[in-house]
Amino acid sequence: MITAALLTAAGLPAADVAAFEAARPAAPTGEETADTPTYRAFWSQAARLLAALPAKPRRSPAEQAAAAALLAAGNAARDAWLGVHAAGLYAAITGGMTRFLGVDAIAEAAAARVPGLVPTPAEVARESALDQKDKDGIEIAQGLLFSRILADPRCGLHLCHAGLLPLPESAENAARFARDGVLDLGAARLERRGRVVHVTNTHPRVLNAEDDDSILATERAIDVATLDAGSDTAVFRGGVVEHPKYAGRRIFGAGINLTHLYRGRIPFLWFVKRELGWVHKLLRGVARPEALPDDVAGAGIEKPWVAAVEAFAIGGHCQALLCMDYILAASDAYLTLPARKEGIIPGLANLRLPRFTGDRIARQAIQYERRIPCDSPDGRLVCDEIVPPAEMDAAIARVCANLSSAGAVGAIGNRRALRVGAEPLDLFRRYLAVYAREQALCHFSPALISNLERNWDAARRRV
Which is nearest to 368 in space by CA: 343, 336, 334, 340? Predict the structure, then answer.
């Protein structure tokens, strides 16, 4: 409970503080028409007090304490409202779940329908211009929204279904690829070789790291590769990079761009879109709108994926490996999940990695940054085959031929059958409900900043 003394100690007008305390809502009644005006009034009062304080970098200790208390009170009220009304809100936004909307569209619609519940696009855009340490964390409200939506079985499965649908531009991209056999999407490039489609991660200046632009290019590439009727198998591989230390070498990927993270260039919804989108499509394929993706019925479109790991797979790129059907790794490559050094949750690795390595190694990798050489007993729990770096091209061709030799139908059927026991869609939904909330808190934690400054010298780096 915020005390009036704490707020007035920060110099906030006593009359405004009294109005804020008077607006504090009771527990939701369950009647949306009664609850929403009350909660909106409280969020409005909290926002007015927060706006009266200086910008975060200029706040005194007393002002910092007041801002933190106001933000916490607003989010507690948001979570209380969502605990009762999230399903009704999602149904209203999606026309009774007759429309599939992306994460950004849902957040924008929620902001318009219930002002104060989540930030508007304009509010998010204003904070996006700031370094991460200078943000108030208004996007935490988005984490609460999607956590509550995903926690509801019907709404959550509908949202998961929406995330697996091909992007609107994918049909046109697939037609171009069918015609030309190549497609350059910027941070991702596709090429068909025989009955195999190769997706190459091409972000050479930053060791093929992910940022707010690259995940869209990657998802477009995954869509096209999956939908391509001219191929039976897909390969995911890192392109040649420019960094002097690795110049001329292929690198599978360096995970999230930590400089962009520190500089506030990674919005919170990036994490939700990534897991609902391209990473999930590797595992489950591309959905059709007329049927909920179901591992038994096989309502989606999918094909086996082969990963070719060269140099290293760090963070998010290590996470992606856990969705692959076959992992080839160069003998000098390694895997790592530096979540401890970053202070964030490594996607779905917490759910998936124990299936490969067992619980203890997974915990050591995630919570103690255990580095796993691919050519080691632990590395072989994740990687299917280790090859000399110079033999990677030949190994890819051989593995793809073996995967498709018994026919595409059998390969896909076995893929689905393995998945239904390991990670059914409802398990994914329940995990993501926890992830959305916890990642939002991590993303705006002071520990994130101190971790990046201590471990990555982030304050000295520029975008």
Answer: 340
